[in-house]
Amino acid sequence: MSTGADSSPGPEPLGGHRHRAHDPQVASSQADELTTGGLDDLEGIDQLRRLAVEAARLGVWRADLDTGRLDADARTRELLGLPAQGTVTLREALARVHPADRAAMRQQLQRMGDRHATAERTVRVLTEQGARRWLLAAGSRTTTAATHAAEIGGVFVDVTTRAERLEHLAAAVEGADEATMTLDHAWRFTSLNPSAEMLVGRTDPELLGKVIWEEFPEVAGTALESGYRRAARTQQTVRFEFFHDVDARWYHVRVTPTAQGVTVAFHDITARREREADRERRLADERQARRSAEAASVDLAHAAALDDLTGLCSRRAVEDRLATLLHRRVAGGVVLFCGLDGLKLVNDGLGHATGDHVLVEQAQRLRRQCPPEATIARFGGDEFVVVLHDADLAAGAALAERVREALGAAIPVLGRRLTLTASIGVKPLGPSDTSATALRDADAALVAAKRAGRDRVVVFDDSLQLQATARLELEGDLRAATDGAQLLLHHQPIFATRDLRPVGVEALVRWQHPRRGLLLPSEFIAVAEQTGAIVDLGAWVVDEAADATARLGAHGGCMWVNVSPPQLLESDLHALLARALERHRLPEGALGIELTERAIVTQPARVADQLTRIRALGVRIAVDDFGTGWSSMDLLRRYPVDVLKIDQRFIAELHEPGGRAIARAMVDLAHALGAEASAEGVERHNQLEALRELGCDQVAGYLLARPQTESDLAREGLPHPG
Ligand code: C2E
Ligand code: MG
Ligand code: MG
What we know:
- The protein is of the alpha+beta class.
- The protein folds into four domains: 57-158, 2-Layer Sandwich (Beta-Lactamase), CATH 3.30.450; 164-268, 2-Layer Sandwich (Beta-Lactamase), CATH 3.30.450.20; 315-459, Reverse transcriptase/Diguanylate cyclase domain (Alpha-Beta Plaits), CATH 3.30.70; 488-716, Alpha-Beta Barrel (TIM Barrel).
- It is 44% helix and 22% strand.
- The strands form five sheets. The chain has an eight-stranded mixed β-barrel. A five-stranded antiparallel β-sheet has the order 2-1-5-4-3, sandwiched between helices.
- Helix 20 packs parallel to helix 22.
- The radius of gyration is 36 Å and the shape is extended.
- Residues 1-42, 168-176 and 295-304 have low confidence and may be disordered.
């Protein structure tokens, strides 16, 4: 019997590489070693394995089944409560295992010796201090030609907290919330506990002495009635599962005969039933994926792969499934492409763990809506794809509507209720479709749904195809345009509300398209943002606006430039502005940037930092289209904001009930934040009057001046609408 104490100072880790960190005397130097030992010292995979062993605080051991000799490292000894030094044997180690688990452990060791696969088992261990510990023991045969014939080795992991938590949970769940009631031989209620009162919706005093069949006639003819009667008749406990449709929950019902009558206990098992149903659906998904993989003879492993987070099929699996369907030319079939609106905001604002929670919840809801034979996949970060077989467009669209509704229900998260909507594109499969075209078209319909305002279902048709093609063209053209040759700025003057003194100009970009004529931002900014072209385009706008400011001189007041989120997050806007100011030696307050609320809610910390540095350059900051986005008061407070620009929509509604109150609140909010309030889209005199009355500081709109070219502006000077 040799141990770590005699011939060898400690066991070799499983890779066969000896390391002193396993020696209890030098274990304390591990940390130093990990930080000072550079990559140069690493001796291949064994060293990495050792790091993993240390990081996971695994106990490592090796045993000879013939001699009973056990080589155990310090951690194994600690976990098993064995002496830190001296000889130990397998028998001694087994003696530390809880008597109830000992036979199983012995058997497990035998199995480890029998085959090369890893065997594992969780066992309880009694330590010297009398504490109980749960250990996961995993091991396999480590015999090689050079070593002994019956050698096994493995690791121990302490899983005590996890196992205990599960144990407590199980105990708590079993005892709690059991609804019990007793009935006498004449079927009269003799007692109900509070949970039973909740369940039947009546109180104990109300029901005592009353006959169950009279009070609850709906029970007649159900499994409940036959269960109660059977227990009374046979004097045997009757157990069954029952779906209570009033509260839509599953119960395990136990009817026990007593001397007085029967006791009925209801135990809520809804969660378990749902888990089982989920597992079944998942198995069905897997089977489906596997079948389709076989049919298309594609890589099985890939096709059956599931998405780790949601347990849905992977993107690859759904692509394969579609290919098979199309290959077989099965009649019908519909693809749903489903995007969760606003998930990015959840990730950015509440953290990725919350985002993941939301994804898992939405995936479950999606699964519940779909028929069992549908293939459901997580396609990308916030996108799901459903393939419905043998379904026509009407069935597909109806399912899409149901899914949209289900995903739109509030999700309780961190004590709040989050509501995310879903946009869905629907594509019926046609004879000429391939997997790629079907997915592309469903995606185009999803994009259209998002563009139409989200939270809706759009069915793919040929006009979308045209749009998609036009979009592709636009993307190509845009790349050519961003060097500036086809871009130009229009300028719209801004005035002080009180006396209509000009106080600034907003630069609005236009695209002189070689074939399509003058394009407005609504026709290309979104595409530019999605393709990344916005960064170059935006840089051109900043430079050009700075040049125009210098040329217009005192005419202009503050030159406001619109900035898209990617410019703030993916480019160095600060450096760009600093260079532009420097080139023309523009004074403080000569330039301002307008951000939408969209830009300021993403990555708040980074945005706050960028904005603070930009403001330090003397650049003013406005929040554009205020009231249409998502910004919270809290975020607004954290940013240096000079102007809140109330969105045109509220100006148009100034004379509608409630519209004025909202505008007033926005003006007051701006002032409370120490900012000025600005109104855009003023088209009528009475709107101007109303804004004056509300104390709104600045106004712009067709009533006062339209966007115009720089030369118009320079020629006529700033108009003075008085
Ligand atoms: P915005 O920044 O809110 O600009 C105001 C929009 O309202 C402009 O539309 C302007 O022409 C229009 N407008 C001004 N007065 C009136 C009025 O009295 N009535 C009505 N109905 N409309 C009025 P435009 O030029 O089509 O720009 C649309 C949006 O495109 C802008 O909204 C801005 O968000 C974006 N945009 C414009 N230029 C740029 C740019 O250089 N970069 C970026 N990223 N976005 C830009
Ligand atoms: Mg603007
Ligand atoms: Mg605006």
